[in-house]
From TrEMBL:
Chief place of localization: cytoplasm
CDD domains, per database record: ASKHA_NBD_TsaD_bac
Membership in a protein family: Belongs to the KAE1 / TsaD family.
Keywords: Acyltransferase, Cytoplasm, Iron, Metal-binding, Transferase, tRNA processing
Binding site for Fe cation: 114, 118, 310
Protein's recorded name: tRNA N6-adenosine threonylcarbamoyltransferase
Cofactor(s) required for function per UniProt: Fe(2+)
Protein purpose: Required for the formation of a threonylcarbamoyl group on adenosine at position 37 (t(6)A37) in tRNAs that read codons beginning with adenine. Is involved in the transfer of the threonylcarbamoyl moiety of threonylcarbamoyl-AMP (TC-AMP) to the N6 group of A37, together with TsaE and TsaB. TsaD likely plays a direct catalytic role in this reaction.
Organism encoding this protein: Bauldia litoralis
């Protein structure tokens, strides 16, 4: 089955066509992402600018995705779009466009939860079987989720303040490294000394796999203020020390999450920890988690970076997984600014296995 996917929940406008085969494998027929450049000047995404840019770009992007896949709308089996969570203006643009394409082509609509897109990507890249443990780390979310099936998610832990990506973005802003912050901090950290500043590892050792990142952000600010004005080397050392604190924290919190997940699935042989979301692009975090997972009898599954950040392949793929279970949505499916993963309607019992 072939599914067109549309993603407009933040500052990427994206369209892709994915084919899912009956054996559960898939292939990308086209994959187009347009990152909006205009937000850097503001140090963050401006919702109104983002929504307007989605309106201007989306029609052309969909045409390009269809042309790239070398198919017509009549060849589609469904049209999938992010229906939330995200910036509501952008979500409405993508979802409404998907509804129009669905009506015009007589194909069903799949209203996809953006987080489910991140959560199911590893099913496409690694043909992963349920259940698995997911660490979702993005600009808006930081959580451990037990992925039991399509539409069947249990949140094991979350952040009690900032998201991990948000912490990277704030650290970058503080260090004058620009936006988006994650890649900038990672690049600066490469030439820095991660041991120079002793920054906290919040919640270290606590049994519940939660995160808290606002204290770390404050500690970074105080360390920077103490030695201001900052040389390039100071900035690199602060970035490296911040990244080291984050990496240690992710490892410690993941250890607790893996122990919890393993205790809930005592008979599971192939235990996988999947990392997804924009922060999953961070190589230091990937390297640390590879070791940490192995130490706990898990293997780390990290999709390629292009599929970790926001993209439309993951939306098309999640749409295809839902369609394969007969889960389509009515044309009045709402756009939802907030939509926790564990509030998704689950398919009939057993269907997600
Ligand atoms: P959500 O998925 O929660 O709605 P979002 O879609 O904005 O939020 P993503 O696009 O998945 O989030 O991820 C963007 C975030 O990832 C940004 O905060 C960015 O700084 C962070 N990020 C990207 N690359 C890296 C990196 N190499 N290291 C650390 N963080 C990174
Ligand atoms: Mg984004
Ligand atoms: Fe995302």
């Amino acid at each position: 089955m072939k599914v067109l996917g549309i993603e407009t929940s933040c500052d990427e406008t994206a369209a892709a066509v994915v084919e899912r085969l009956p054996d559960g494998s898939g292939r990308i027929l086209s994959d187009i992402i347009l990152s909006q450049p205009d937000h850097a000047d503001f140090g963050g995404v401006v919702p109104e600018i983002a929504a307007r840019a989605h309106v201007e770009a989306l029609d052309g992007l969909i045409q390009a995705a269809m042309a790239g896949a070398n198919i017509g709308f009549g060849d589609l089996d469904a049209v999938a779009a992010t229906a939330g969570p995200g910036l509501i203006g952008g979500v409405i643009v993508g979802l409404t466009t998907a509804k129009a394409v669905a009506v015009a082509s007589g194909r069903p609509l799949v209203a996809v939860n953006h987080l489910e897109g991140h959560a199911l990507t590893a099913r496409y890249t690694d043909r992963l079987a349920f259940p698995y443990l997911l660490l979702l780390v993005s600009g808006g979310h930081t959580q451990f989720v037990a992925v039991e099936g399509v539409g069947r998610y249990r949140r094991l832990g979350t952040t009690i303040d900032d998201a991990l990506g948000e912490a990277f973005d704030k650290a970058a802003k503080l260090l004058g490294l620009g936006y988006p912050g994650g890649p900038a901090v990672e690049a600066a950290a490469k030439s820095g000394d991660g041991d120079r500043f002793a920054l906290p590892r919040p919640l270290r050792g606590r049994p519940e796999p939660n995160f808290s990142l606002s204290g770390l952000k404050t500690a970074l600010r105080l360390a920077a203020e103490k030695i201001a004005p900052l040389s390039d080397q100071d900035v690199a050392d602060l970035a490296a020390s911040f990244q080291a604190a984050v990496t240690d924290t992710v490892a410690d919190r993941s250890a607790k999450a893996m122990a919890l997940f393993a205790s809930q699935h005592p008979d599971l042989n192939d235990r996988a920890l999947v990392i997804a979301g924009g922060v999953a692009a961070n190589q230091a975090i990937r390297d640390t988690l590879t070791h940490e997972a192995a130490n706990h009898g898990f293997r780390l599954v990290a999709p390629p970076q292009r599929l970790c950040a926001d993209n439309a392949v993951m939306i098309a793929w999640a749409g295809a997984e839902r369609l394969a279970l007969g889960l389509t949505d009515p044309l009045d499916a709402p756009a939802r600014p907030r939509w926790p993963l564990d509030e998704l309607a689950a398919p009939v019992l057993g269907a997600g296995a």
